[in-house]
Amino acid sequence: MALEWGLEWQQCYVDALLETDASNLVARVAIAERVILSRVEELCLISGEEEEWQAIEDAIKGLAVLRSEILKSRIGIKKDRRPDVVKPRISAS
Per residue in 3-13, pLDDT tens? Predict the structure, then answer.
């Protein structure tokens, strides 16, 4: 049986992959993960669906890469920001 396209988890996954606004990306990834988990729970109750299981595995790996990139970008932002350093005054004695 061919994998049907248009399942909710697939759309949420594609939405996360195509998100270009960094402020929305974290939410898109979280939504996709939640919807995929819901579908996994459904699939546990039925037999077959090997193609969909493989597609879900691939999507989970893709979301892990996105999460990794989000983390890297946030670490990079923190590295680029330098805190204001206040030097102590040396008294003239």
Answer: 567 899 999 99
- Spatial distance between the Cα atoms of 61 and 43, rounded to a whole number of angstroms: 18
CB 13 within 8 A of CB 63: yes
* pTM recorded for the entire structure: 0.72
Q: What CA–CA distances, in Å, run from 50 to 12, 26, 43, 44?
A: 20, 29, 10, 11
Residue range 16-56, pLDDT digits in tens: 999 998 889 999 999 999 999 999 999 999 888 899 999 99
- Domain segments of the chain as ranges: 8-80
